[in-house]
Design goal:
single chain, Lipocalin, eight-stranded antiparallel barrel
């Protein structure tokens, strides 16, 4: 009986320590106050500018240990550009985003490197577009407005041909350049 009591006591102690040491704060993106935008240079014409209207995601982080994870899902059909009046169907079709087969763009972050002095972080992410996955680092600035609200913003560059955004004759980069500059401004609320 005493042995069983000791086993239960150790089990409860182990359970308490393990759950408290892995307690992550959960933050949810407020899509009404957030934006994901992009820009692609075009030779001898107006640059492509646009963004996405529908996305959601969470960030889980342990601020004491500087570990965490993120998952952001973007509804690819919510794309908008300054070229929509002439090329809306082309952008959503097989040559560019192929929305019929790839309705989501997914970004997953597994590592954070937080600098508390400068209020910036580097997040190692995996981005999946049209079934193509690429890993890279995203530098972000963060500002805590309150203990329960934070703003993350930053920019990074991806290459559209890495994700087959513009296949066939659209894969050429002489006129429509390969680099896509992505600008993110995310406001998150603590759950």
């Amino acid at each position: 009986m005493v042995r069983q009591f000791k086993l239960i006591k150790y089990f409860l102690l182990f359970f308490f320590i393990s759950t408290s040491s892995f307690a992550l704060e959960k933050w949810t993106i407020d899509p009404k106050k957030s934006s994901i935008q992009f820009k692609i240079d075009v030779l001898l014409n107006e640059d492509v500018k646009g963004g996405f209207q529908k996305f959601s995601g969470t960030v889980e982080v342990d601020r004491e240990k500087f570990i965490g994870n993120t998952k952001i899902e973007t509804d690819a059909d919510s794309i908008f550009t300054n070229y929509d009046s002439n090329y809306k169907d082309l952008i959503r079709g097989d040559s560019f985003f192929d929305l019929k087969h790839f309705p989501k763009i997914i970004l997953v972050a597994k590592n954070f490197y937080i600098n508390t002095k400068d209020q910036n972080t580097i997040s190692h992410v995996s981005l999946t577009i049209k079934g193509h996955e690429k890993e890279f680092d995203i530098p972000l600035n963060y500002i805590f407005l309150k203990n329960e609200h934070v703003i993350l913003n930053g920019s990074f560059i991806i290459h559209r041909n890495d994700f087959e955004i513009g296949s066939g004759p659209w894969s050429e980069t002489f006129i429509l350049k390969d680099e896509i500059k992505v600008l993110v401004n995310l406001e998150l609320d603590k759950n």
